[in-house]
Design a protein that fits this description.
The protein has no helices and 44 strands. The protein is mostly beta strands. The two termini are 40 Å apart.
Length: 518
Amino acid sequence: MKTAVAVIALLAFVLPLNAQPANSPWPMFRRDIRHSGRSDYPGPSGPHLSWSYLTNGQVSSSPAIGSDGRVYVSPYESKCLYVFTSAGSFVWSYATGNTIDYPSPALGSNGVVYFAANDNRVYACTSAGKLSWSYLTGGRIFSSPAIGTDGGVYIGSHDGHLYAFKSSGEYSWDYPTGGEVQSSPALGSDGTVYFGSKDYRVYAITSAGALSWTFPTTNWITCSSPAIGSDGRVYIGSFDQQVYALTSTGSLIWSFTTGNFVQSSPALGSDGTVYIGSYDNRLYAITPGGALGWSYATAGVVHSSPAVGSDGHVYVGSRDNRVYSFDAEGALAWSFITGRAIWSSSPALGSDGDLYIGSSDNRLYCLKQGSVPTPTPSPTSTPAATLTPTPTPTPPIDLTADKAEYGTTGSISVTADVWPLTVPCYPFVRVLMADGSTLYYQRGVGFTASPVPYLGFAAGTIMTTEPIMGYPALSANFSGIPTGAYALEGGAVDMTRTISASNLFYFGTVDREVLRVK
């Protein structure tokens, strides 16, 4: 147990002990405690933009919807939880001590909203935006909280533990794994807690915090969250490119191989079909027996987790800037273009048929029922018999700074998630200075005007077939630098086309994080 590390603070008042998930259309990540991703309501059969709200950060988390129609979401750079009315009006926000990468909020029947941030804390706020309690774990938090029928709150941390709390904020127990827990827990009907860890394992923990069983995979389980079928089956994706189906006792039923690693979480159709995205740019529909039903190739990585409407239509986002809708047979119903890539934000469906999703263009979108458009012809649906893997474009390098605001004297620490690079390239980190100049950073060397830093790898081009997560890209002390806005950028430079610092060519996109010195 890690009671010496964890601290319960700022307990404003005693909350009801038997709070449950809110009786709302979409109260938490993947909608229900089983994380089925399936709604009781249909989504729009033709999209019309009802409203969008420009936040001050990329919206990578997934929205939650309250019983009163309010929408809760946490943009990345903003360090805030935002709350909007169903009409798109701002209600309130709550500021955390650091960024919020992937975690989505969860809503309790007691009106409390639970969420987490990279300041290592789990938060609980009242429906009016007042802090009830917070809890300090030993690491940053990418996992989304889940609320059990008994009101218990469950969440994973980068410190390798799965935590359980009472709705009042009282610590119940934690379970240690051998790796970071980014996966969001799902709950079985008997209270068993299921989740994945970066120690290559799926875990089942009893409601009392004891190990029930583990199942070994052959690579990390990161953001993929388990979905629990009505028969107790457990479905989850992994970095080993597999989607696994397990019995409620942890035995393998089947595994399905995609063309790249899987960070999407599965959604379950009413007929048992498993829908899940992959970094091979595809959305997959897998039959209950583990065979391919159909797949659809988008023009970008599918990290977003699909949602299934009550009519069987499937909705998902892609890093090609689009939200997609398909019928149960895999035919494209419609697509809607946002301003930038949709990363890990997943659709949430309201009781009025509205669809909510975030984009890296800093906007939360609300799509309502509109006229049915002509389907976008560029991506293609592929029957099982003719499936041919689509070559995967090089994804961007994802940078995370330790904070967004600095003093004129201090230190900076930046980590990077580097996706597999199948061609020789120069991974780099650079800083666009307040005076307009550009400096590049190389570990062991420091800042230079030459574009030859390599995220700390040995000088020269590199290739990697395995993802590198949380790599220490930049760590430096500084003193007396000017105040102003700086931009931290990272990406992969094409060595075959780049000949000078003023003529850089990239694979994929460039990650850009705004840093401010005050």
